Amino acid sequence: MRWPWQRGARSTDCPRPCQLPSAEPDVPFVASFTALWRPVARHRVNLPEQVRSDLRSAASAVTAELPPDDLLGAEDTLNAALGVPGSRRAPHYRLLSVKFSLRLSPSSQEVLAARRADVARIRRLEFLKTALYERPDLLVLDHLERTSELPEEEVLAELQRLSRSIKSCGAWWQPLLEVWESLGAGFGDVEIRHKAMEALLQLSAEALRAATAPPGRASPDGRVG
């Protein structure tokens, strides 16, 4: 309803699509909109430009928190935030309604698809890493599953050695190297640092031989007879 003293409503379109930030860096939304507004000031030039500038600023604050994966969801959220009559208070006009449309450019779609593929690949590698540490024989089974014929004995032996190496590196050598690095960093003198590392390595080797020796062959001090 329009009162006799009110000025007529005006419609402003986005002359060309503009970019709005998304929650994903370097993947902006491409937006266009149509706004219906009514001027309230008699002397104000370039009022349509002011309306467009205000709407772009308000929309940027909303879309910066929205992921670009769900365009329809982002569009609904934006229109719900800005499309309510009277939601925008301006000294020279009153916003009656606004409708935004969002899309992604082809380059942004490629960037987003590549990042999502990288995330999925990292998750798969992390899963495989955990599985291989717990069951290193899965490495051999994975090779057998992806090939149509059984590997030669030499290849099978290499795969078995590799699976055992992966497990031992996570259970034994990685913690040892971390302690070794921490121990070396605690000494300022290079010669003392080397001696401390050699002592740690010798004790670790003796403990390993004692742990892997057949029952009854390890001496009380940890040395294998």
TrEMBL record:
It comes from the Bacteria. It comes from Kitasatospora phosalacinea. This is Uncharacterized protein.
